[in-house]
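User:
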Amino acid sequence: MARGSARLAGVPRVPGSGVPGSRVGGRSAQGPRLGPEARVPAQAGSRLPGAHPRAPGAWLPSGARPRPASLAGVGVAGEGAESPGSCLVPEARPSPAVAPARVAESPDARRPLPAAWQHPFLNVFRHFRVDEWKRSAKQGDVAVVTDKTLKGAVYRIRGSVSAANYIQLPKSSTQSLGLTGRYLYVLFRPLPSKHFVIHLDVSSKDNQVIRVSFSNLFKEFKSTATWLQFPLVLEARTPQRDLVGLAPSGARWTCLQLDLQDVLLVYLNRCYGHLKSIRLCASLLVRNLYTSDLCFEPAISGAQWAKLPVTPMPREMAFPVPKGESWHDRYIHVRFPSESLKVPSKPIEKSCSPPEAVLLGPGPQPLPCLVASSKPVRFSVSPVVQTPSPTAGFLPDPVLRLKGVIGFGGHGTRQALWTPDGAAVVYPCHAVIVVLLVDTGEQRFFLGHTDKVSALALDGSSSLLASAQARAPSVMRLWDFQTGRCLCLFRSPMHVVCSLSFSDSGALLCGVGKDHHGRTMVVAWGTGQVGLGGEVVVLAKAHTDFDVQAFRVTFFDETRMASCGQGSVRLWRLRGGALRSCPVDLGEHHALQFTDLAFKQARDGCPEPSAAMLLVCSRSGHILEIDCQRMVVRHARRLLPTRTPGGPHPQKQTFSSGKRAPTTWRGWQGHRCTDASLPPGPGIAISSLSVSPAMCAVGSEDGFLRLWPLDFSSVLLEAEHEGPVSSVCVSPDGLRVLSATSSGHLGFLDTLSRVYHMLARSHTAPVLALAMEQRRGQLATVSQDRTVRIWDLATLQQLYDFTSSEEAPCAVTFHPTRPTFFCGFSSGAVRSFSLEAAEVLVEHTCHRGAVTSLTATPDGRLLFSSCSQGSLAQYSCADPQWHVLRVAADMVCPDAPASPSALAVSRDGRLLAFVGPSRCTVTVMGSASLDELLRVDIGTLDLASSRLDSAMAVCFGPAALGHLLVSTSSNRVVVLDAVSGRIIRELPGVHPEPCPSLTLSEDARFLLIAAGRTIKVWDYATQASPGPQVYIGHSEPVQAVAFSPDQQQVLSAGDAVFLWDVLAATESDQSFPGAPPACKTGLGAGPLEDAASRASELPRQQVPKPSQASPPRLGVCARPPEGGDGARDTRNSGAPRTTYLASCKAFTPARVSCSPHSAKGTCLPPASGGWLRLKAVVGYSGNGRANMVWRPDTGFFAYTCGRLVVVEDLHSGAQQHWSGHSAEISTLALSHSAQVLASASGRSSTTAHCQIRVWDVSGGLCQHLIFPHSTTVLALAFSPDDRLLVTLGDHDGRTLALWGTATYDLVSSTRLPEPVHGVAFNPWDAGELTCVGQGTVTFWLLQLRGADISLQVRREPVPEAVGAGELTSLCYGAPPLLYCGTSSGQVCVWDTRAGRCFLSWEADDGGIGLLLFSGSRLVSGSSTGRLCLWAVGAVSELRCKGSGARSSSVFMEHELVLDGAVVSASFDDSVDMGVVGTTAGTLWFVSWAEGTSTRLISGHRSKVRDFQPGRRRGSRTWCPPCLPAPSPPAQMIPSPAVTGSQRPPWGSQRGSLGCARPSKPSRLCLHQRAAWQALQVNEVVFSPGESHCATCSEDGSVRVWALASMELVIQFQVLNQSCLCLAWSPPCCGRPEQQRLAAGYGDGSLRIFSISRTAMELKMHPHPVALTSVAFSTDGQTVLSGDKDGLVAVSHPRTGTTFRVLSDHQGAPISTICVTCKECEDLGVEGTDLWLAASGDQRVSVWASDWLRNRCELVDWLSFPMPATTETQGHLPPSLAAFCPWDGALLMYVGPGVYKEVIIYNLCQKQVVEKIPLPFFAMSLSLSPGTHLLAVGFAECMLRLVDCAMGTAQDFAGHDNAVHLCRFTPSARLLFTAARNEILVWEVPGR
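Assistant: Predicted structure:
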């Protein structure tokens, strides 16, 4: 099975194949297959069978001449497809127009020739010369066309009638192809929105001709004795019922691999003979047909993946795959039948049934629906032990696949490793080995161990993984780490293996353990031949009397090792087949108990043993540094707690250090010197250490992870854990430190960000019970470690952790409809916990014994609990204050073991079943009345057994069935009628041990049983079940099993919690056994990935629906809609809820865990036709480099803003927005023809590589998408002839790549030895390329050799006279000159022919980041913002003078100083005018001739807290008719002109190469135009008529803009202050002259500005601190202002008096003040206005006021709980509240609450009426006044628009940073959103 290939529905894998889905202990695997190098042996002069031209059975067309017998070219390449003699065999058969019937052939009928010449494969089209149409036939519209994907000729068959348009082989129906290959490969592509049919006539060995047909025209599988019809389901099917089978518009090329032998064997019980004929009918494209006895993997070709046990696809058959792309992303592989159906190797003998009876009757039938999919299968092995059965097991097989594991450790917590690339962590979870990708949280598993894994080791190349299990005698496994395949399994000479260590090459494996006498034993194995098919060889064994706690193979010599333990440190060596050790002289440290060791390499990187040091640590806090060569201790240090003088508690832990025999211990701060022989008290026990070249990580039992420099001078970083640290490991790059604790926690510390990420948490004892909650996707578990933990099922991360020291939790269940869970304890108490209110609701203690089981009715009205004393309690849960209804004693069996299945409620909630009052009886009661309805004596059921049977667990089936399932102590499951008690059926021999838990799926298809350490799945729907599928993985007995609420997953709990995917589509309303089967459609989109895509390689019982292409729309209601599955948006699963749950008595919550995998970088394309349409982009990304292009001749102008490419018309201002990048764009490049634009972006959190998109300039479409680098692309450049594109990676990647622009395939790639800052093609020679970087100039010469390009490199060092700075920029001048800029501000000139630098001058004080040359002029831009124009016409003449050249002829013509470092520029050919971009986010139009610079586009230097438009042209000030023209004396301040000053004369100071610095003229005046400034804007408000908007910014300015043209109208300026908030007065009697602005400032002042008079009317000072929010009352006569201390002041804007101050929010800053008219009369208060204030402590106050009467009354006070930590990108999300514009009684709130949601509160009802779930915490909020739209911005670069009326939502992307502002205009026609320096203006069409 190809990895990720699409498969026929109903097809599991070959048993024992060692790939996903294989069984453990099942039937034997297939024999070895020939590899790609296999050839058919042929001796010289020998004749192949049938090679004679007239051999019996041979048929030749008229005039055909036989070819000589030869095997030349019959190999993998497919040459010689023509056989020695033709193989068309005459054979009688009915007309193709009728269904084929059985034809009895005469004994002398001609048979196919022997098939030796058909090996290893046969090209059918070439062999039968289809292009000549002599031995084949065509009918209808059949033509040869060229396919762009395959880049070759294919046959197109099309037509409205399939039967009239076809290709047929052979030409005559009386002939036979005679092809005996087992596999037929059909390479085809369906035509979009068309049907197609493929007919095969196959002959069995008994001469029966069977027609096998495949088509998307068939809706279901049909079969007769001579005809099999298989429906072929294509991916991305259209949902219309009448178009079910049509090929999708994006149909891809498909490799259909048909196992003809198994098709006949499985479906008709016949033996395959040969392929007789083929007919390909419209509508499709076909490339070729092939037959072979080999099973090829289409995604693998040539020598690729040579170590895999698969046969690569021959090159001739393979589809072309461009470099850097995946086969499965372009093509589809369908294999049919699947290997799991290949059960018998010969026909099944049946005496009384016809052959077709195999598919009839109640037995299991394979569902032969072909489902084409291209999604690759992730590696996840689910071992299945299949009970032998005479028939095939039920489908799918396997039905479960392990998806996730919750747990860590088991045997210990010291085994946790980094992979060599640092991308994943390998750790054991009891018997499972988990590989966790730390960035994505994805898990993959190594399954096969039957006991806890005690040791792990991984080699240095991630090729081999070694593991050992704990149970004696220890069994060890070697795995292929990349594929997950177990290479070998062997028994260790040791009784128990404690530690394993690989050599770096993986050729040597060493293990330490105990023999059966308890002595320490060391074994060395040779593993070098394992990957090549060899065996593990024991090289040496040694016994030692010394204790060994840690053992390592050295990195510098694979024959040397080191160990440490109690009182010993020993160095080992493997020589001559023996292991020998030598002790290290420890001196006074000989009695220490050493715990771990690590090797420290010398600083010079010398790999010699003499250069390496060994560090060992001890429980006394010592760390010894040992010289491995001299075997002595060189340094000894000790970790001691440091106490402050007089302080009782340790403040910090440090090392005291000294030499080998120190006389004193010198501590750090607070230590006193103490004699070494008398250590100052106990040290801190060190359990583990790990060393990198720069630091040492130490884990200690005080719970701290500390990072030290290698000299242990001071602590660099430390992280405190919740338990003792048991293991630490530094990642290979030294940036992450992995740590594990004995309390079951695994995480890592990121040293760069100084953030600790939790990877896994675990119970430390077996799990007793579990429960699932559907709405929030949560899982609750209780364990013997006395904890209750709540988990997020989507991320498998822990949300809450409760620990009790006095009582143990025993049972748990969720309330079905409310966010509440119930927990029963060993004390008999039952408590309910509210997840929203963060408190214990109620506690009941009606039980005398420990609670054994809890269950609730599906409607949540009733709850039942049982205890060990036999009492049964019934509770009413209709309201949160639930209470006890009844307590009945002696009802439940008192001596029954605690089990989650001891109580069961029927699916309709009417019946309650339990084991009791004795172990032999099962009682059924009415759940509401507790009246006994039925009592069944289990002990009398088995009359044949002499042992009295007893019940163990009970379970109800679906209500429509009325079944009650009982597991018994005699290993049976009895199915009873829940009403009459009669036996319906019985499953005997379920398991040798009693089953504590069982459950039945809602569609009654699968029965799940906890059977010892395994999980068994039974086909419940089949009466004559062939036996269960058995799944291993648990190392201890499974205590509980359950289906998830959506029935798509299974959970099993025991030693850990396993999450399994159900690989079969469930049917919630499927007909039950006994009823006729119903044809159902597949699953809808659920909260997890579609089951169809998860099981692309497995059979399905129904056709899955296509998943949604657009983001799922969320309902506004707080509960799932009626009939829905309650699926929630899984994007909410990325960030954990971190609420503390208050508990009572001794049951206290532990620290809340945090998930490291928060969802970031949501990549959704900006909507183009949805609810929003992007209208304009305001801003320019100053973070990029060369990210602006301008062509004066064509007028093309493009620049980047975040993730968008903005193409703008400089005359009209019209914009186009090219989207698609998933991260911020770093650079642009325009081809010389101006027809192609290339844009590159960095790597996002969702992609492993950066993107380069190639755009068609004329159409604005992305033509190519390439992934060249794993890091950010620093530069792009097209060659002068536009045939090549060069890409340069940043300083981390340092990769230079060349791409051919014809197909954009990778031509050449190389890794540079040092960081490079720039690259450029020689404009005069397309074969020359130059890079500049650190101290060198690299010249590349490109040589074309056919289709290949070779690179010749010449590196020239920078002369010392230029300086020590780096070369930062370059450009070519007149041939052969090259200009380079340096980081020290110099410009140097190189002769590219001679490879020497002959001239340099000091051009600037800062680094030169940009150089441009044209004609005789050079433009330089520096980091100081200085833009200079140089006259360099005389430089060419100076080249001849060599080192004696002087720059007296080089002089500066002009100079400008811009607002930031110059990062991009484009000029015309004469360099008279151009466009320049700076890091301030500004694009300037520069005219050297006029001496001016005009600001075109302006962004922002830093984060924009609120909207700030940013694009200006011109300098005029315009006022609309409604506003008077401003007069000069008014406070409207025009943008001033800034004039540069004259720099001091340079005099005769010499340049760096002896040249005089050129003279410099005075600077040009730099005119600042009216524009959006680059300072931070804090607020935007709109005028009532929506003609203007106003902004305030950090520079103290208030600006008024015309919305239509975005022209600046008025500017009010306050010097030396920051304007923090702004409000526009409401309309007053329709008089625009009374419009005012209220602005709040950082000094606590409030200013009132008049718009009509363009002047400040009033200044008041109502606050002592900075204002944070301001608002007008509805009549405009009052101003409300809030400050950062939480005070709200009420002032008169005319008099300036503050007449009321409200201090209710004091202590937290006011974040929002919102005012509206009081419309609701049911509030019980008087007033004209309704206003609210929200503060940062999650409190909202609502007030009713009538300020004319000086009335203000509190209406409501809302407090929302806040978790301990809910920071978003380092900042606490804001608390935002607003009145609902369409309903005056509603209030909407978002903030850092328990859940990510919008809370809708009804002021009249005094309660929360709705909750709208959000994927992340909100950063901004805006409500549309004209429609029921709600806009929410997130820190995850996403905007969500919610239609509150329809209950739907839509997500939009486009920003590259947190969307901290969203504002609707008053008419709701526009929406403004801002993120840092990016501002997007959206249109809201039709709403």
